[in-house]
Design goal:
The protein is an alpha/beta fold. The chain folds into two domains: about 150 residues, Aspartate Aminotransferase, domain 2; about 110 residues, Alpha-Beta Complex (Aspartate Aminotransferase, domain 1), CATH 3.90.1150. The chain has eight helices and eight strands, in the order H-H-E-H-E-E-E-H-H-H-E-E-H-E-E-H. The strands form two sheets. It has a four-stranded mixed β-sheet. The chain has a four-stranded antiparallel β-sheet with strand order 5-6-8-7. It binds pyridoxal-5'-phosphate (PLP). Pyridoxal-5'-phosphate binds next to loops.
Length: about 290
């Protein structure tokens, strides 16, 4: 979540981003994510929903909200079973707990819909966004229902809140997204990129995940000598030397993250793809020789 305060650092599900394990307070609970390579999406979903229900049953009274990314970004580009959020929301409503959706990575068209949550047909209670709205200018947003907004009635002021330069930039970013049909474009280019990635044959590729221009390529090891994280680093370095910056995420830091600017051209995607194919087969040759 936004910022580096004690509370926000405590709610990230990825321990490496916390300063200290002790930052996790007793009244913050984590769910297993509804995704696993070993289980079907449905089994994974049911497991997490059961976990959610038992936490709510026991502690629902003191829980204010559940926070989730509609598609996990740093977690490794993980989407959930299409019914997961809708079922989780029903449980939350039953216990009077709000749903906060973090759209910092998924927001503003990246996934081929304006917001990532649109893939699941759920209306959350609160949406937070940042990054893409400012196109480089620092800005973040908090959107909620009238009822929740009206409950915040204390005096408040913030040095950068409502900054006119950032707000004007955000409005022109939104106009630009609309005028150039970037949401639709992310859907089309994303499907194209996903199909091309799926066609690549390499023993290092375990799975391709995600939607729109938010795609992940899960790397796997082919022996005990070199880990999936090491293979990922080799690929990323070689791609960087060839002029392509690809992200890295996943709990084991072994997922290539394709999250390019929404204005990227198909030619650039094709150039990246042909280089990636060469790099993957080069590593295979190298590792095979080493073995
Ligand atoms: C999903 C998500 N939420 C929140 C943040 C952090 O936002 P901020 O830089 O405003 O603290 C990030 C940062 O990359 C992010 O990926």
């Amino acid at each position: 979540m936004h910022g580096r305060t004690h509370l926000t650092l405590s709610v990230t599900g990825i321990p490496m981003w916390r300063l200290d394990e002790k930052l996790v307070r007793e009244d913050i609970f984590f769910l297993d994510r509804p995704y696993s390579l070993e289980k079907s999406d449905e089994e994974a979903m049911n497991h997490t929903l059961q976990q959610l229900e038992s936490i709510l049953e026991e502690h629902g009274e003191k829980i204010a909200a559940m926070i989730l990314e509609p598609i996990q970004g740093n977690g490794g580009i993980i989407m959930y079973h299409r019914d997961f959020i809708i079922k989780a929301k029903a449980l939350l409503e039953h216990y009077g707990v709000l749903l906060i959706v973090d759209e910092v990575q998924t927001g503003y068209g990246r996934t081929g819909k304006m917001f990532g949550i649109n893939h699941y047909e759920v209306v959350p209670d609160i949406i937070v966004t940042a990054k893409a709205l400012g196109n480089g200018i620092p800005i973040s947003t908090f959107s909620t229902t009238d009822a929740i907004a009206q409950s915040f009635n204390k005096a408040s002021s913030s040095t950068f809140g409502g900054n006119p330069v950032a707000a004007t930039t955000a409005l022109s970013v939104l106009n630009n997204i609309e005028q150039h049909g970037l949401v639709q474009r992310a859907e089309e280019l994303g499907s194209y990129l996903k199909e091309r990635l799926q066609e690549i044959s390499s023993p290092f590729i375990q799975e391709i995940r995600g939607v729109g221009l938010m795609l992940g390529l899960q790397i796997q090891a082919i022996n005990d000598e070199v880990s999936s994280a090491q293979i990922t680093d080799i690929i990323l370095e070689e791609m960087k030397d060839r002029g392509f910056l690809i992200g890295k995420n996943g709990l084991n830091r072994d997922c290539l993250a394709f999250q390019p600017p929404l204005v990227i051209e198909k030619d650039d995607l094709n150039a990246m793809l042909s280089n990636l194919i060469e790099v993957l087969s080069g590593i295979l040759d190298r590792l095979t020789v080493t073995i």
